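Below is a filled-in request sheet from our internal design queue. Each sheet records the structural input a requester submitted and the sequence that came back. We keep these sheets so that new team members can see what a complete request looks like end to end.

REQUESTER: design group, bay 2
PRIORITY: normal
MODE: inverse folding
CHAIN LENGTH: 387
BACKBONE (tokenized):
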């Protein structure tokens, strides 16, 4: 094997989508976005006349999406056809010449892209009108409690001097490019990558988060970016996944799990979260992306967290389920849950958050009130440091 040639071919593949990746890194240890970029680069090496891209932008930031679209347009000019499968309607509208819409395995509409606006696409995809209102933070005239306070939190090489307050019932968004430090911050708050210095307080009481067990003891929950590998036991049942955090509530008088209590708890949470299934005993892998995400959310909500960190809460979820999840998140906030959302989906941040922090190079550089900035302005702020 000529490893120098292998390295050269890989470097050329990565160059096609105009990103910089460590070619010697272990793929299993890379972020979801980097894994996606590698898969796309590999497909581009096949010299195929038809390339099928199934949700290629799921975990990509706006910068990587724009780079991918540049590649797609170049491939099109070379006579290569692209089948672009996506739930992201704005992207489909931007990149596609023709659109075909499927619902429940049936083609419900097709035509040239110009025939569809976003509302029409959403209607055909879901079979109903989709509307979404922005989140209004209303502390009911009282001085809201700071449920999470972070002061000068630092993890060298990842993030530096991070300070912010999260109020009870507030939804705080964090925006930033891949590598901005936002995911590392979330992992630090959940004890996966503990910070080296700084302070974290829950309801005014300083706490030390050295590991995941500490975070859970202080009532912090975390919904990961990749629910399939980090958030679910795919071969286990829907019910088991949903109540894994509260198995103690199903313990009988002999200290063993009571089948009756077990089923009761599952029924409660499947109903409360509106998980669409005929049998909670089925493997969680049998659910749609939206319902799988409800299960991951339910696992934490069942344990009554004070702070919930959501990393890409609707990645890979269709438009109908996305709106339902957004409404669920807002409903939880109105009941007093403090929520932190990390997302590349700018409309998601604009609709669900009352404040947005912008991270760049491991630091918080700006803060916005959602109603005072447009999606286009926020995107410009996020990408303005790119040369």
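RETURNED SEQUENCE:
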């Amino acid at each position: 094997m000529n490893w120098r040639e292998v390295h050269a071919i890989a470097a050329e593949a990565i160059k096609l989508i105009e990103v910089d990746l460590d070619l010697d890194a272990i793929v299993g240890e890379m972020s979801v976005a980097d894994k996606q970029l590698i898969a796309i680069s590999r497909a581009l090496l096949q010299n195929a006349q038809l390339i099928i891209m199934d949700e290629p932008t799921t975990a990509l930031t706006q910068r990587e999406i724009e780079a991918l679209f540049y590649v797609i347009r170049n491939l099109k000019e070379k006579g290569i056809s692209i089948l672009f499968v996506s739930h992201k309607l704005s992207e489909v509208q931007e990149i596609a010449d023709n659109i075909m819409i499927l619902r429940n395995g049936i083609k419900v509409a097709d035509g040239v892209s110009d025939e569809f606006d976003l509302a029409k696409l959403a209607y055909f995809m879901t079979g109903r009108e989709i509307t979404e209102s922005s989140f209004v933070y209303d502390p009911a005239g009282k001085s809201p409690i700071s449920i999470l306070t972070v002061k000068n939190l630092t993890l060298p090489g990842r993030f530096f001097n991070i300070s912010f307050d999260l109020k009870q019932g507030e939804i705080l968004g964090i925006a930033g490019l891949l590598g901005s430090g936002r995911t590392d911050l979330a992992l630090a708050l959940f004890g996966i990558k503990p910070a080296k210095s700084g302070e974290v307080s829950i309801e005014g009481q300083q706490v030390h988060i050295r590991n995941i067990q500490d975070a859970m003891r202080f009532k912090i929950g975390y919904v990961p970016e990749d629910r399939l590998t980090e958030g679910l036991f795919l071969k286990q049942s829907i019910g088991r996944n949903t109540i894994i955090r509260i198995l103690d509530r199903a313990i009988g008088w002999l200290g063993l799990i009571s089948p009756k209590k077990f089923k009761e708890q599952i029924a409660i949470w499947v109903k409360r979260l509106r998980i669409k299934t005929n049998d909670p005993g089925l493997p969680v892998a049998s659910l749609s992306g939206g319902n799988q995400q409800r299960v991951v959310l339910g696992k934490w909500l069942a344990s009554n967290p004070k702070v919930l960190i959501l990393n890409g809460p609707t990645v890979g979820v269709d438009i109908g389920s996305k709106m339902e999840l957004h409404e669920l998140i807002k409903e939880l906030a109105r009941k007093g849950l403090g929520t932190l959302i990390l997302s590349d989906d700018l409309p998601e941040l604009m609709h669900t958050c009352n404040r947005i922090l912008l991270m760049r190079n491991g630091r918080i550089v700006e803060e916005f009130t959602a109603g005072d900035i447009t999606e286009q302005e926020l995107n410009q702020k996020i990408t303005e440091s790119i040369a």
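SHEET NOTES:
- The chain has 14 helices and 14 strands.
- The longest helix spans residues 62-77.
FILED BY: M.R.
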